[in-house]
Design goal:
Length: 344
């Protein structure tokens, strides 16, 4: 009886809120309308507001919602295993299993226990029956593997500058039709590997690799519905420098970082497909067609990254024609593709 009455009251509040949303849909000014457990506002405004006020946000929506985001406030009892506390001004949450809740066909069900997110460490919630959206509300995060060179950072332009300055071998980036450097530099494979390892010791490598435009901004958004890990062919010899670079430019975004140790002077290498399978990766973002085909052939979706259509080595008909390989030309296209995979 109590649940039936609570459900009736909930729908009354929901209809009131929805009517206000419709009346204000023509404006883009941030606003807030709160009714016993609901808050509606513009996304950017709300994010700042969450950090200033001590209320509970029940997870992150599994759907991409633009300006007018509908969120459910807490009127529930504390569930100890579900809290994720944000203690600092940057809003970084300590790792705890998230609960994704989405508005799906306006269906609501009661559940005795639902996880909550304590936004600023000072909020509290009262005991009561929690509400949960039904159907596809508890979606698992996508597991996504991300390459480093030419996907996160412009490795090749820094290397090419080093080769020009130290070996008087001038090449345009448009000449790199394949990511096997000995074919471009007209030397043996062994000599090419030696030159690359010399590059690793220089300022060209340590300070000259710049992030790919848009990558950090998009990855922050993707981290709300993706588990992100780095899978790179880089060598073990530059592991420490790589970890430092990732932490500097992409802090806190990746759960794991794996090195394939390809083209190394010593040590065993590991195929990217094997690393991705061990992670349970559903998607790989990579610029190399060979790795794209290798992973697609074992059932992993691949976003073949060709930044602004400027990577000659990424233009492979065999890779592009594979049903699990999709070409992308910037990080906005990466976001669009992953959102389409995440939303049922």
């Amino acid at each position: 009886m109590l649940k039936r009455e609570a459900l009736r009251l909930f729908f009354c509040q929901f209809q009131t809120l929805w009517s206000i949303r419709a009346s204000m849909a023509s404006t883009k000014h941030p606003f807030s309308a709160s009714f016993c457990g609901f808050s509606q506002s513009s996304e950017s405004y709300e994010q700042g507001r969450h950090r200033r006020q001590g209320w509970v946000d029940m997870g992150i929506s599994s759907r991409k919602i633009s300006f007018n985001a509908l969120r459910l406030r807490s009127c529930m009892g504390r569930h100890e295993d579900g809290f994720r506390r944000v203690d600092d001004e940057t809003g970084k949450a300590h790792a705890m299993p998230p609960y994704c809740l989405s508005l799906h066909d306006s269906e609501v069900v009661f559940r005795e226990e639902v996880g909550a997110e304590l936004v600023n460490g000072n909020g509290a919630c009262r005991h009561g029956n929690p509400l949960e959206f039904s159907d596809h509300s508890m979606l698992e995060k996508l597991v996504v593997a991300v390459d480093v060179d030419e996907v996160l950072g412009s490795f090749l332009s820094a290397l090419n500058q080093f080769i020009a300055d130290h070996y008087s071998s001038n090449h345009s980036l448009t000449e790199y039709y394949v990511y096997e450097f000995f074919k471009i530099w007209n030397c043996s494979r062994v000599e090419a590997d030696i030159r690359v390892h010399e590059f690793f010791k220089t300022v060209y490598f340590k300070e000259g690799i710049h992030p790919i435009p848009g990558a950090r901004h998009v990855l922050h958004k993707l981290s709300t519905f993706c588990n992100l890990s780095v899978v790179t062919s880089r060598q073990n010899a530059i592991k420490d420098d790589t970890l430092k670079w990732i932490e500097e430019h992409y802090p806190g975004l990746f759960q794991e970082i794996h090195f394939g140790n390809h083209f190394a002077l010593d040590g065993q290498s590991r195929p990217k497909s094997e690393i991705c399978k061990s992670l349970g990766a559903q998607v790989l973002i990579d610029d190399n067609p060979r790795y794209a085909l290798e992973c697609a052939d074992v059932g992993i979706r691949v976003l073949l990254f060709d930044y602004e259509n400027s990577y000659p080595w990424s233009k492979s008909d065999s890779a592009a024609s594979h049903p699990l390989v999709t070409k992308v030309h910037n990080w906005q296209e990466v976001e669009n593709q992953l959102v389409s995979l995440a939303v049922p």
